[in-house]
Amino acid sequence: MTTTRPVALVTGASSGIGKTAALGLVKAGFDVVGTSRDASRTAPLDGVTFLDLDVADDASATATVAQVIERFGRIDVLVNNAGVGSIGAAEESSVAQAQAVFDINVFGVMRMVREVLPHMRARGAGRIINLSSVQGFIPAPYMAVYGASKHAIEGYSQSLDHEVRQYGIRSLLVEPAYTRTGFEANSTKPDLPLPVYAEQRQIFGRVMAEAVEHGDDPAVVAAVIVTAATDRKPRLRYTAGTLAGRASVLRRFAPAGIFDSQIRSMNKLAG
């Protein structure tokens, strides 16, 4: 089976931003393939074909991309949305726990990119859209492992973009702030909790819960993903939502001392 319509592959499309982005891409005229770890348990979405995918598994990434090519004959847009959060002080997470987060948030992206690039390069066109975060360009106290994974995605995406642009392919970043999803509830908790950080970690948890409650609707981020997928002249970075836009401006233009104070104030850190 082949199609003349553009094809988008969206990882982590069973809920939240991925689900809303998949539906937005359908509306924008794409044939959309969404993925989840167990597609048989995923509620159907109009216009979206679901496939099993574990981005932390090499063989799964290879098999999923092969299935998309077999069914549709092409992949025009890859949206690397699948990810996991991690909450806790840096000292409270073991290296093994950090590796598990990176295996999804960073190496999962790399696995998918490696699988789709040959097909995009053969067609001379394609877009890779990587979901980053404002915590990919600002500090993330009490989310150091998560922030490090998103900083890694920022560096990887920028470098990749320069490598593949000559083949008609772009690597783009979408940077949301707090979004009303199950992010907090689904985030890993520290496997080595320390009493010295307990009080501040609890304070941060309340800050995070309130921020998510009043955060952007996933539709705000999904609309930006669709824009990145369809812009005639795409940009490297797309902030998603008002708070993300303000954070980007603050990071670029605020004096270092003011920026540092704002980070500590936002996260209710003493001193």
UniProtKB/TrEMBL annotation:
Gene3D superfamilies: NAD(P)-binding Rossmann-like Domain. The keyword Oxidoreductase applies. The keyword Oxidoreductase applies. It holds the Pfam family adh_short. InterPro entries: NAD(P)-bd_dom_sf, SDR_fam, SDR_oxidoreductase. Keywords: Oxidoreductase. Belongs to the short-chain dehydrogenases/reductases (SDR) family. This is Oxidoreductase.
